[in-house]
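Run folding on both entries below.
>entry_1
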Amino acid sequence: MVDFSKIVDSFKSSAIPQNMLNRGQLVLNNFLKPIKILFEQKSVPKEPWSDEQIEFLLQVLSNMDTDKDDNAARVGEREARIASKLHLKTSAGFCHGVGRSGFLTAAQPKAPGGSIMYEITNYLARNFLKNFGLPNIQKAIVCPLCTGMSLALCLGALKPDYNDKALINKKTVLFPQIDHESILKAFALMGFKAKLIKGKVFGDAVRVPIEDIKANLDENCFAVVSITSFFPPRENDNLKEISKFAKENELVHIIINAYGVQSPEWMSLIRSAIDAGRVDAIIQSTDKNFLTPIGGAVIASPSKETILRISQAYAGRASATPIVNFLISMLSLGINGYQELIKKQKDNRRLLEEKLKETAIRVNERVLDVFNPVAVALSLNNLKKEQLFSLGGALYNLRVTGPRVYNTDKNQFGTCCDHYPTPYIVMNSAIGAESKDIILAIERFEKVYKKFNQK
């Protein structure tokens, strides 16, 4: 067994001078030190790792899995056999995945390295959320499912025991209106009924009053879903009051914090909700918050038992790739790197609003008064109906991606209410965006707007 921290001991009798060996050992130890600290502390590093350190860690752990054993006699139906070595790259070598059938976080006998990797990753997920606004959570797991599918998993895990005939009809989820297909499909997938509580317009903002949520409670309700981050004009829910309501009525309460980790304001609302009442699970997207490829979510909870129930509800063995992607982000960003990203996001949010206000003056529109730490909406009152239909396509052809255009003559879906009176465009300054993206997008929007008005 090679002890890399003492590798020079193997060359004491060689012709290489001792001072050179010591210098080399110093460099190697410096390279390995973050890995040693990670294993000891199981927390997100303060400073980012190099890509070479991350690759080394992943290669060491993946080489512990049984598919790397040249002398193994593999006779199972699932042995991490692969058609191409490219699979090793796309999975970072963890071809066995993580977990066992029916238990997401269970140790996998054929993947000791993958099991270590997953355990470390989940420690980092909890540590990271504690560092960035949720000190009152107890456990977190990285789930290889998108946000909507993770919601379905949580609801399925936390549903009533239908073997009890007294609970057989409790299949309704109170749903403050969130116009997003993935959430609606999560309810339908699990066979639950969503009891929609419609949003109402307050000035420019759309909110769902807590009184309306309370008024919709009936004997068949077992859960309530709330949100932090969504697109203007929808504002975040009153999480604190919903959590009190959930506790008083023994309702499962799941918060969808889709891209909210980047916002200290939204994280503070969740923290207060946990302290005030009942919060069972908080779901956040890995790609929107942690700059990973799409396909994962972090599920956190103030209850270890809740996370255990959720992990035991997972059907089948899971892909390791979304977990590896999250781990890579944690190590490549570090605490300090993410703090810098949040600062930059705040600066870009101010820039976005300032530039849109300047544009609004020039084109006789206005920025909508909606609380959202990430996105800004601008009215489009002076465009004709056919121009509103064409605006999104025109911006896409100018290589502007991501804006949302609402036309009062089209489907109301997206506004989270009935008959929102103002046409608008929404732009985001989400984490990872650059100031040049914001400036360029607004310049191109104004160009299209003025061209339309000349017709």
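>entry_2
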Amino acid sequence: MGFVALLTNSQVGDGLTTFSLGGRQLFYLDPLSLWLLPYTVLIHLVVLLCAPRTEMSPAWIRNLLLGLLADLLLFSLRDPVGIAFAWIFTHLGLALSLAPVFEDGKERRFRRILLLYLGGGCLAFVAGILLLPWRLEFALPAITLGIVLRKALVPFHPWLPVLFERAPLGQVIAFCAPQVGAYATVRLLAPRASEELLVTLGAFALVTALHGACLAFGQKSFRGVFAGLFMGQTSLVFAGLQCLTLPSLVGGLTVWLSGGLSLTGLGLCVWALLARRGKMDLKVYHGGYERSPLLATCFLIFGLASCGFPGTLGFIAQDLLLQGTTLEYPHIGILTAVVTALNGTTVLRTYFYLFCGSSRNYAASQSLRPREKMAMLVLVSILLGFGLRPSFLLGSRLEAGSQILRSRHRLRLPQNL
């Protein structure tokens, strides 16, 4: 199906509204932000709805809402200084959630890893913002380093699998799924950076996607599989943002939304299974489909949607990404196909281990609670609904991609930076 042809028939609009104080523009709502704000609210809402009673507490809810507030603030800013402030603020909810974990003397290595990568990423990002008005040749690489560290691109990825294994899973989903690194790339790098820098960033993202797919394929840990899938699929966003053509930008922006929603749903299924069955590995078949058919079905839909299964939003996103990038960079199409095949195989293999085989006796009920059913069915409806009728969403992605290209053209920066 020619989704690129559909896009070319759409009309492009400009930014919708701004808010200024003292002559300095603070908040900026445009076609990109207006979708990211409800997208972020939805992620945090479904995480709240699916939280097990044993983990939900006033402090946990406070930390989740702090993370939501920080993400909403970041996604409504375009000023570099404001983005730098909000970038640091997005770490606060996760840091407060991990404070009890850090008090355990056995978790010193975990704390050092997060401080090294996430703390170092904040320092590099802020340094780049401070240098931006004066030394662009130093500022953009520093900002890129901060984004790469936060996005966990190879070789700066060791913190992400450790975080998925040891941190509270709901807070991890809320911290990672909005993908603030992609937003910083769109606002700060895409309008200013040279093509060489963007292509280099895209190359790191493709290597990370392949590494994450291989990592998930070989994992026996339930959480480790989810970490690898998340690392592999979300890195494909940068493959679209690197090319600076309208179809590739639309593909990257659509993968951003589809991957975030499908992987959030998959993470909620993982969280629900861990709450009911405890720690599981993928060495034996656990069974239990007949006791939780809705959970098993949602797990399969979310997993396949993240890999671009036909009929879902992920399929349209992957198709746009391939059409927009392969003409200029054929290797992107090959690597994307390999990554998608590996991740699809991993999803099916994991599904068989978790829900097929002889049924086991579990102490807790395996059925979903009403609020969990509502959260997962909302995500399924969105992924399938936009998969069947994508024109409304793709029109907004077209407007956002066109705005990125206009911003880059307006700056008219030298290409050797």
